[in-house]
Amino acid sequence: MKVVGTMATRAFRVLWVCEELGIEYEHVPAPVRSAQALELSPTGKIPAVVVDGTAITDSVAIMTYLTDKHQGLTFPAGTIERAQQDAHMHFIIDEIDGVLWTHAKHTHALPEDMRIPNVTEALKAEFAQSLDRLDARLTGTFLMGDTLTLPDLLAVHCLNWARGVGFPTGSDKVQAYAKRLRDRPSFKAVRALP
Hints:
By secondary structure, this protein is an alpha+beta fold. 57% of the residues lie in helices and 7% in strands. The protein has helices spanning 11-21, 35-40, 59-70, 80-109, 120-137, 150-164, 172-182, 185-191; strands spanning 2-4, 26-28, 48-51, 54-57.
């Protein structure tokens, strides 16, 4: 499987899933809207993966595909546990990842004439509220108690992103949770990629 995208993008989270599940991959560090990215996605967005000649785009769709296919980091579809896991995923996508992406759009991704100046402080406040809700969801070692699942990798990727752009880092419990996941060999393996 080929994973296309730079380490400074959401490709990191896809590569982390691959490492965690022991999936063999080839990493192609192509930037957004590069020739390689445009070959796989009409918008040139990354990451993208190529599986058996077919391109799959959107990091969460890719991650879900991989965890379902390889039956790891996930509960089986149709179970109550999967519904709870999916609820965590949607919360993270909507209230954590979405806020960070909005910040990225208004600081560098959108053309300057489309950016809203001074939006960062409002986004930081919204993000801090979301981290309080994440804290409340952490009732065990991971979001699903003692079972590591896909939402954990997504959450911690976002927490690292937030730290990198000067957003709040959350409570001591949230910070300890992020550290536990950053200490995993799979995270360190992706971090070591060029």
